Amino acid sequence: MFEVGFTEIILIxxxxxxxxxxxxxxxLANQVGRWAGRARAMARQLRAQLDEEVxxxxxxxxxxxxxxxxxKVDAPAADPPxxxxxxxxxxxxxxAYVAPESDAAVTEETQRPS
Length: 114
Prior knowledge:
mainly alpha, 3 helices
């Protein structure tokens, strides 16, 4: 995926030397080396812990309470329940929306001479 060759490393070091200067570059290299060492140690510890967990699981020291009986494991799966005979009724249609009379219509009716 991401390959860094010898020439790329030299180029990166040259740019770092120009940017940081000769005083800060050794300190930075030392710090990066320590971080890389810590990261490797953490990865090694994680790998060892995962290997231990896999060994514990592979030993299968859980006992009979966790194991399922062979008859249940080998039994065929139960048939799914039959579909419902009748579908639930459709909900009734809501009543049509009737707009309330506007104020203009009410005022026209009240203002008409009788």
